[in-house]
Amino acid sequence: RSSVLTTSFTDLELKNESQVECISTQANSFFPFLAQRISSTNVMSALCEATGADITEVSHAVGKDSRIGPKFLNASVGFGGSCFKKDILNLVYICQCNGLPEVANYWKQVIKINEYQKSRFVNR
């Protein structure tokens, strides 16, 4: 994906290989950000269930904020497939290799929350 992605940025003045790698990583991190959004909604669904709030109404209200928008705000069993988890684990690895353990732990939590939501769904 990196070489295809890099050709999309031919009009940019890329200073060095690290800049190209960061652009590629950020573009590929689109999937982890979606996964994070899904996990955040699922965590709120647990809180809504515990407090008697309706997650559908809460998500609808939050989605009206133009900075957030309505997409990926439906509570669900969590994310699946290969891309989200693979790309998140890639971010974890890159963060660890660059001496950013707190940032790596942040992304690990997205995966943990997804597993938590799957177990909540199965145990209903």
TrEMBL record:
UniProt xrefs under InterPro entries: 6-PGluconate_DH-like_C_sf (IPR008927), UDP-Glc/GDP-Man_DH_dimer (IPR014026), UDPglc_DH_euk (IPR028356)
GO molecular function: NAD binding; UDP-glucose 6-dehydrogenase activity
Example of a GO biological process term: glycosaminoglycan biosynthetic process
Catalytic activity, as annotated: UDP-alpha-D-glucose + 2 NAD(+) + H2O = UDP-alpha-D-glucuronate + 2 NADH + 3 H(+)
Pfam families assigned: UDPG_MGDP_dh
Gene3D superfamilies in the cross-refs: Cytochrome c1, transmembrane anchor, C-terminal, NAD(P)-binding Rossmann-like Domain
Stated name of the protein: UDP-glucose/GDP-mannose dehydrogenase dimerisation domain-containing protein
Occurrences of domain UDP-glucose/GDP-mannose dehydrogenase dimerisation (ranges): 33-115
Coiled coil: none
Any one of the GO CC terms: nucleus
